[in-house]
Amino acid sequence: MDRGALHKIAKDLVAPGKGILAADESTGTIKKRLSSIGVESNPEINRVYRQLLFTTSDIEKFISGVIMFDETIRQKTDDGGAFPEILSKKGIIPGIKVDKGAKELAGFPGEKITEGLDGLRGRLSEYSELGAKFTKWRAVIAMGEGIPTNTCISSNAEGLARFAALTQEAGMVPIVEPEVLMTGEHSINKAREVNMKVLKEVFIALSRHNIDIKGMLLKPSWVHPGFDSGEKPKSEEVSKATLSVFREVLPDELPGVVFLSGGDSPEDATSHLNKLNEEDVVAWQLSFSFGRALQEPVLKTWEGKEENIPQAQKAFYERARLNSLARSGEYEEEMEKD
Fold it and tell me: How far, in Å, CA of 10 to CA of 250, rounded?
């Protein structure tokens, strides 16, 4: 493991003004995304859509890295260029989702455990040969009556730490994603309490597995009330609650945080990120690793039609540009101009 190389990749992924495109939708998820615009998913249409994103002109101004799915990292553009190679030539770092999805946690109704550790060392070696420089593993923590349990939190924290250790052993940067779901009726105070507990457990597990914190990134949720709670928080409230957790839990040597949007609209996700970056200086870069929040306008513009690709690419460029502005707290100023 070349620690210096890991540290550089981690820093480059959270470079000022840039963030990560999460294009790592599983077979089931990309099917849902495409069906929302009346398009049937298959390997070829998936390839065409990802090509649209990856070949957008000048997108490297705002996108530092792309997380791909197993199918995607093996695909090529129309002219035969492998996706990881095309991205690298643009100065965008190729990454790969390596978990096998969240499954029912036996004995704990309503809770999940992420699978995929079996055979991971071999898969990491292959992904590295295909050009991946970083990886991602998602754990899912739900809130509800009596959950999350300590067993669910500790089991997922252990899985995240083992994944991170294997990734760094393979010479790649792990993105550790303990997603506390925003679905449910919980208050923002309950969300703060659970996020605090989850992140503390995750960093204890990472320490136990000797993870080089300077060579990893964290992909958390916002501290946000449940969508069914009746609360509609302002971005300022989300920002303050989120940073209060981070200041108590996150080590200063962590290079950065790349937020997931978690079901918020593209506009709300960008607003939350903007407000976080308006706050007092913190030790970590506060960036994004958005999937739907970057892609929703692109899909609606594209509609699966070749003639719409130029306009869809413009929509992607614009959404990425706005999130770049949010990295420096300038998004709301831009909106006021409009």
Answer: 16
| Nearest partner of 50 among 64, 29, 65, 69, judged by Cα | 69
Catalytic choice (18, 112, 136, 219):
219
Catalytic residue status for 136: no
Pairing of strands 63-68, 19-23: parallel
331 φ/ψ sector (left φ>0, alpha ψ -120 to 50, else beta): alpha
Residue 65, exposed/middle/buried by CB under 10 A (0-12, 13-18, 19+)? buried
Give the pair of three-digit tokens for residue 196: 């605090």
Q: Are 165 and 206 in contact (CB under 8 A)?
A: no
Question: Please, are residues 154 and 202 in contact by the beta-carbon 8 Å criterion?
Answer: no
Is there a catalytic annotation at residue 177?
Answer: yes
Number of helices and strands in the chain (H, E): 13, 10
Q: Is 279 left (phi over 0), alpha (psi -120 to 50) or beta?
A: beta
Catalytic residue among 25, 111, 158, 177: 177
Using only C-alpha atoms, the chain has a radius of gyration, in whole angstroms, of: 19
Per-residue pLDDT of the chain (338 residues; tens, 9 = 90+): 689 999 999 999 999 999 999 999 999 999 999 999 999 999 999 999 999 999 999 999 999 999 999 999 999 999 999 999 999 999 999 999 999 999 999 999 999 999 999 999 999 999 999 999 999 999 999 999 999 999 999 999 999 999 999 999 999 999 999 999 988 889 999 999 999 999 999 999 999 999 999 999 999 999 999 888 888 888 889 999 999 999 999 999 999 999 998 888 899 999 999 999 997 678 999 999 999 899 999 999 999 999 999 999 999 999 999 999 999 988 876 666 65
Q: How far is CA 337 from CA 204, 328, 334, in A?
A: 45, 17, 5
Q: Domains for the chain: give ranges and CATH numbers.
A: 3-337 (3.20.20.70)
